[in-house]
Amino acid sequence: MSFPHDDFEHQLRPLWLRAQAGDEAAYREALRRIAQRLRSYLRRRMQSLPDDLEDLVQETLLALHLQRGTYDPALPVSAWVLAIARHKLVDLWRRRGRQEALHDPIDDVDEGLLARGDPEPGAARDLAVLLSELSPAQRDAIQLTKIEGLSVAEASARTGASESAIKVQVHRGLKKLAALVQGA
Description:
mainly alpha, Rna Polymerase Sigma Factor, Chain: A, Arc Repressor Mutant, subunit A, 2 domains, 65% helix, globular
């Protein structure tokens, strides 16, 4: 996501630092820019899963929100975002059983630039608050597929809902969570 002649990082960093200091408008704008870049980044890597693109963008934005306390201001924001996006993409491939996709080339990134750390202590509470805003069907579908890592088929079997219904609930739930996180 960060390229030598790309001013994405240059524009994103001040927004993200203001957002970290509590500026909600800067936070919304940073997430908007990140979402736009994520769509481009993930689209190239998800050619066999185009229907999952928007869900993965929203899932990554939610992870950024929940893990915002792990950001180290000494590192590029785009490297931190990229690390989270890559983990979400690999998780998707694993859930889909695409073991061969785990060997697909991913942009070379200096691993030393990637942020490390445990989720901030309030992240579980934040997630619980956000999930409480969803319908029970959306909350269950997201809990099972995105948090517990079950496949859509496994979530369907556990809840009794059809696989299509699970996919719809996850998509709608992630969309609502993104709107909540962005303050829309």
